[in-house]
Design a protein that fits this description.
The structure holds 2 protein chains of 2 kinds.
Chain A: E1 12-17, H1 22-31, E2 40-44, H2 54-59, E3 65-67, E4 79-82, E5 88-92, E6 96-100, H3 112-123, E7 127-131, H4 140-148, E8 152-156, H5 165-173, E9 178-180, H6 182-194
Parallel strand pairs in A: 1-2, 1-7, 2-4, 3-4, 7-8, 8-9
Antiparallel strand pairs in A: 5-6
Helix pairs in contact in A: 1-6, 3-4, 4-5
Chain B: H1 7-21, H2 30-43, H3 48-57, H4 61-69, H5 80-97, E1 101-106, H6 112-124, E2 130-136, H7 139-147, E3 149-151, H8 155-165, E4 175-178, E5 181-184, E6 192-196, E7 208-213, H9 222-235, E8 236-244, E9 259-263, E10 268-271
Parallel strand pairs in B: 1-2, 1-7, 2-6, 7-8
Antiparallel strand pairs in B: 3-5, 4-5, 8-10, 9-10
The chains are: A alpha/beta, B alpha/beta.
Bound molecules: S-adenosylmethionine.
Chain lengths: ~200, ~270
């Protein structure tokens, strides 16, 4: 029996993370099935004026290709997309990305609330949202938005987080479906992949 | 983000702004446009109906509306690597053919990009050979650009970028500080013509050797991006350069093949076909 009650109608996985999430992300990316059937869209807080290096660092162990998309680039399955530094990254109707240089949100650009919120709007109940360790509240509202549209929500187990402010903000704002450790998130994603075979 | 606005309501607003004032936002990218609209409703404490009424009945409100609607966030020497390429490769390339030339900053916002160019040209010693045109749709922000006065707190970031650009001096030598403001030396802007210009209407007003349109077309959908690119193509001399933002790309555009990628990392293109 599938303990997460999954199915094969999801269209995307979106992940938010900040301080203390890097190790967890690397662990997830290293264990993803090679033919992962969905796009993985990540918004991670990062140094504003360091444009290069992050994709490379994440690519080292990732089983899937990691890219920073361009404005209006189409979203494809089996690719890991990373929000570029100093831009907000939105999902547009029509399944592509849109970049913007709007004011910071929650002191952040890229802001997780924007990526998660627009993904929730476009993918509705066909979206899985995951929020990892982080030091501010960015992402909490985005997770609520995903939940309100019928999407599936997961936060990293606060006790496992280096800094638990972010997942706790989400837990306080909405009813999160699963609270999982990184290893369990990996299991969850492997389980999900089986439904697409 | 919790509060929402229907696409139908967004359409009513854009239609009214278009029919009454001729500004056409119908082909702006939806995600950021929607956030801007929500922001205006919140800032002005309006709902969709009262906003429509205000736009309809108060023509003086339109400039303020445009100012809030457009995203004006900018910085000096944004992407310092880009500015090094402009100084070390692009401008020397132009100078091979013309001693005097023209640059267009399309969507110049509050002018930081124009000032960066003016400083770069001055440090190359060619400031009097180059004419700059700086345009924007938003007249309120153009006024700021003409002043060249910025909150002093912004200067930390601008300084950092300037250092990474490897400028010849210290940025401090180009402005004085007064009451929390950084006031740039007026003569830096003496070869700059500021004017209102709407890229959507796309009036061709001159021909250029270099056009910068960075972080402007990201607010457009692909249909409009295509249209605007055609106007840039028309406004460039053959072998002129077009620079766009580091996260923009021309490869999806209809006339991409009339340009050559000169620098892919910093997104500089060259017109190679008429
Ligand atoms: C984010 S700023 C870009 C500033 C600068 N180029 C940079 O990269 O930092 C975008 C600017 O584009 C302008 N803009 C938006 N739509 C426009 C249009 N249709 N015609 C001309 N300018 C427009 C906005 O008013 C805004 O000042």
């Amino acid at each position: 029996m599938d303990k997460y009650n999954l199915n094969n109608t999801y269209k995307a996985v979106v992940i938010g993370g900040s301080a203390g999430s890097f190790q967890g992300i690397v662990k997830i990316l290293a264990q993803l099935p090679k033919n992962f059937p969905l796009p993985i869209i990540m918004c991670l807080h990062r140094l504003k004026h360091v444009r290069n290096g992050f994709v490379e660092a994440l690519s080292l162990k990732s089983t899937l290709q990691v890219v920073e998309p361009f404005d209006k680039e189409s979203i494809k399955k089996g690719i890991v997309y990373l929000a570029p530094s100093n831009y907000h990254m939105s999902i547009e109707l029509g399944n592509h990305f849109a970049m913007s240089t709007e004011e910071m949100v929650n002191n952040s650009r890229p802001a997780i609330d924007i990526t998660l919120g627009t993904a929730g709007y476009v993918y509705r109940d066909k979206l899985i949202g995951i929020l990892l360790s982080g030091a501010n509240r960015d992402g909490g509202l985005g997770m609520k938005h995903i939940k309100d549209k019928g999407g599936l929500t997961i936060v990293q187990e606060p006790t496992e987080c280096m800094i638990d402010t972010m997942p706790k903000a989400a837990l306080a704002l909405t009813k999160i479906d699963h609270v999982l450790k990184i290893d369990q998130i990996v299991d969850f994603l492997k389980e999900l992949e089986k439904h697409y075979k | 983000m919790v509060q929402d606005i229907d696409i139908a309501d967004l359409k009513r607003i854009t239609e009214l702004v278009y029919t009454k004032y001729g500004y056409d936002f119908r082909n702006y990218a939806m995600s950021s446009f929607k956030r801007r609209m929500l922001r205006i409703l919140e800032l002005k404490n309006l709902n969709v109906e009262s906003l429509l009424k205000k736009i309809n009945e108060q023509p003086a409100f339109i400039n303020e509306f445009l100012d809030e609607l457009t995203v004006n966030v900018t910085e000096m020497f944004r992407d310092p690597g880009f500015w090094r390429i402009i100084r070390d490769e692009i401008i020397p390339g132009i100078l091979l053919n013309h001693k005097q030339f023209k640059i267009w900053h399309a969507g110049c916002s509050s002018g930081e990009e124009v000032l960066s160019m003016a400083i770069l040209l001055k440090e190359m010693g060619i400031e009097s050979d180059v004419t700059l045109y700086a345009t924007d749709l938003d007249v309120n922000i153009l006024e700021k650009a003409k002043q060249g006065v910025y909150p002093a707190k912004n200067m930390e970031l601008n300084e950092k970028n300037y250092v990474r650009f490897e400028g010849k001096k210290s940025l401090k030598e180009y402005y004085r500080e007064e009451n929390g403001k950084a006031i740039f030396h007026r003569e830096l802007l003496q070869n700059v013509t500021f004017r209102k210009h709407d890229l959507v209407k796309g009036e061709i007003f001159n021909k250029f050797d270099l056009i910068l349109c960075r972080n402007v077309m990201i607010y457009f959908n692909q249909t409009l991006q295509n249209e605007v690119l055609k106007k840039f193509h028309e406004s460039l001399f053959k072998y002129g350069y077009l620079a766009i933002g580091s996260k923009e790309s021309l490869i999806w555009c209809d006339i991409a093949n009339r340009f050559l990628v000169v620098n892919n990392e910093e997104k500089v293109y060259k017109k190679i076909k008429d």
